[in-house]
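FAQ
Q: What does a multi-component entry look like?
A: The components come first, one per line:
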Amino acid sequence: MSTEFPYEVISEAQFEQHRARYEPLTVAMRRLIDAALVTDADEATVRAARDKIEQAARLLERHRRSTPIPAIHEDSGRPVVWTNPVVGLRNPISPPVVIEYDGDGRCYADFTLGDAYQGPPGWVHGGICALVLDHILGEAATAGLTQPKFTGTISLRYLRGTPLGRLRAEAWVERVEGVKTFARGQISDADGVTVEAEGVFIMPAWARDAG
Amino acid sequence: MSTEFPYEVISEAQFEQHRARYEPLTVAMRRLIDAALVTDADEATVRAARDKIEQAARLLERHRRSTPIPAIHEDSGRPVVWTNPVVGLRNPISPPVVIEYDGDGRCYADFTLGDAYQGPPGWVHGGICALVLDHILGEAATAGLTQPKFTGTISLRYLRGTPLGRLRAEAWVERVEGVKTFARGQISDADGVTVEAEGVFIMPAWARDAG
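Then the predicted structure of the entire assembly, as tokens:
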């Protein structure tokens, strides 16, 4: 990967060790967020829960890294973006969306969005659809984040509401023109497409001569 | 507000009572998320933190509402969207973005994005910019969510990277044509605009005759 960011290469064994340690923590935080969204607990119960949360935070804060170091997976050559808000296994903001890569540059993800991603009652927030689509179009445009490219423009067309629950996102590259990569994608539920997206991704100047 | 969703009207006093109880819980969860993102705690410490988090979740789960009921603020007439992923005071996924309304239909928000919203190292994930812009354009188009309208299309133009840290989002209505409201907006840092957005918001068929 041509990049101006520092990174470390990790093996599959290191990846799995790291994942085994931290992913259950993320899962616990997602459970907590879901519980907090719909609780009508009284003052004393909320205070007791808060105390537990602050104790957990203090435990983790005692072991604070100075700078998070991006990692590249040795086998796939792809960055492992642990803290990414869409796909990061260490970020409870992410659903997470777990992206699968077809050989031909397409990628897709089956994922579930619960109450934390709700806009109008029962429906996914339109901006959450935009977040997921921006990410997955970026994955397609950069061959799984192995090429440095940034979103230039992205346009979203909402065909109908996207229901909370089980969804699929897909993206693919339509064409490449010089430094511009044109990608398209969509989100769908069991009844078909709910949101369509098209985006232009641009290779930054610093990467154009790096080859 | 014309709506097909049930809701309850709450007074300022009820709003403040609810906020005083639950907002500190959300603040504690945001602190926990930030700590978890950058910790390199060992297995035993992570397990201890996880136990605390699961205890907190169980406390809150004992008081689970059957259905979250949307609330309308008595004074402003605006919905109080407690669990919204952009502005919700009860959703730690939200930064939160706290929106201010000018009299003339413009709205803006000063907010801070930390590590949980990061895409490339040091920069806000492009999709998070899209999430915030979709929301604030929607607020402008619906006069603070008091009119039922849904995103039809939204287009984003990324002028440059948006740095993590202190940011401003703004939105305003450009024009209204029948059931379509055209809104524009932007995100900026101290040096100027980083992302521009334009969106078309559409009044749903069920609301057109309701007046």
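Q: Is there any commentary attached?
A: Sometimes. For this entry: Residues 38 and 175 of chain A are 45 Å apart (CA to CA).
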